[in-house]
């Protein structure tokens, strides 16, 4: 049985395009000489940053030496055309950052998807049957089957591969959905005000979700959540925001002691902020609990591990404090953030 004239014309165009692609691949890749494959060709005139790039295109291979910075630029310089529906790996915006770089090109081919009496045609580079069916605009429900079937009617399908959906009555849909990541901002007294720094990249999570689908007149009108399962938890994005303060003149003496003890300039603002919160930078600051000195060590005698003059020497006391904040919190900024949250450290 022949198709309508409209479909014949449309699919004749698809077949013609497919043949053009094949001849273009053979003409453009199969017989071209390249620097990498030629003997006795000097490449000393090429820029120092040039790299060897190999294209694999449906069985054809082309190796060139190029100064291109990205995959897209390399394709353009090599004269390799990419058509609608083709897939390129790695992606077009990927940086060519190594010699002997490989680029795979998967050419789109004509495909027919049948869902009962509904037939759709598309060009795709995918070989995943579910992905192909979804590209064609069909929903795949739990229990549905997708079969690759022999091409039994050339007049109907031409050179296309045929995928047929067998509906088994299900109306439950299980899909994977993204879980967005959250963002947390934390003050960093070691960073200048107005400066921000990403300390941890956020990552989108993935969950598997099942829905019961409600249809009216064969049109989806609502979804009822049946179950969901987290496959990959999202990773929080952490951004540090500068909170570094200028050192007041009255803090300069304490700042000098901190520098002598080994506090870096990057940590100085946070260190002084914490010190003045705890003791006002007083060597003999005492608390009824037994905490003593600039760091309010409890008991103060802990600072004897640094030197015997722990009761009177501010540098000794701050040296002990450095070890404490690094060991307990991982640094001055983290210790100060803890103090901001709890009022102690």
UniProtKB/TrEMBL annotation:
It holds the Pfam family G5. The chain crosses the membrane at residues 12-31. Residues 165-245 form the G5 domain. It comes from the Bacteria. Gene3D superfamilies: Resuscitation-promoting factor rpfb. The keyword Transmembrane applies. This is G5 domain-containing protein. InterPro entries: DUF348 (IPR007137), G5_dom (IPR011098), Lysozyme-like_dom_sf (IPR023346). Keywords: Membrane, Signal, Transmembrane, Transmembrane helix. SUPFAM superfamilies: Lysozyme-like (SSF53955).
């Amino acid at each position: 049985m022949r198709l309508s004239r409209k479909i014949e014309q449309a699919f004749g165009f698809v077949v013609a395009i497919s043949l053009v692609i094949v001849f273009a691949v053979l003409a453009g890749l199969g017989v071209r000489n390249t620097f990498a494959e030629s003997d006795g060709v000097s490449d000393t005139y090429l820029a120092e940053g040039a790299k060897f790039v190999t294209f694999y295109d449906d069985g054809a291979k082309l190796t060139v030496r190029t100064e291109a910075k990205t995959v897209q630029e390399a394709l353009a310089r090599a004269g390799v055309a990419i058509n609608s529906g083709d897939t390129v790996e790695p992606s077009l915006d990927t940086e060519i950052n190594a010699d002997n770089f490989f680029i795979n090109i998967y050419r789109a081919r004509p495909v027919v998807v049948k869902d009962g009496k509904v037939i759709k045609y598309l060009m795709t580079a995918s070989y995943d049957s579910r992905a192909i069916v979804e590209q064609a605009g069909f929903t795949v429900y739990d229990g549905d089957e997708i079969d690759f079937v022999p091409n039994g009617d050339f007049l109907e399908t031409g050179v296309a591969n045929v995928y047929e959906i067998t509906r088994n009555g299900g109306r439950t849909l299980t899909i994977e959905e993204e879980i967005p990541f959250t963002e947390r901002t934390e003050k960093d007294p070691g960073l200048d005000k107005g400066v921000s720094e990403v300390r941890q990249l956020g990552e989108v999570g993935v969950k598997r979700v099942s829905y019961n689908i409600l249809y009216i007149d064969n049109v989806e009108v609502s979804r009822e959540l049946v179950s969901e399962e987290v496959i990959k938890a999202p990773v929080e994005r952490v951004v540090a925001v500068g909170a570094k303060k200028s050192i007041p003149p009255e803090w300069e003496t304490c700042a000098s002691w901190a520098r002598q003890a080994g506090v870096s300039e990057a940590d100085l603002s946070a260190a002084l902020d914490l010190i003045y919160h705890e003791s006002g930078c007083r060597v003999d600051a005492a608390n009824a609990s037994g905490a003593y000195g600039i760091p309010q060590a409890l008991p103060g005698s802990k600072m004897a591990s640094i030197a015997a003059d722990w009761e009177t020497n501010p540098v000794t006391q701050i040296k002990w404090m450095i070890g404490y904040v690094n060991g307990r919190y991982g640094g001055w900024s983290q210790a100060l953030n803890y103090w901001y949250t709890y009022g102690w450290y």
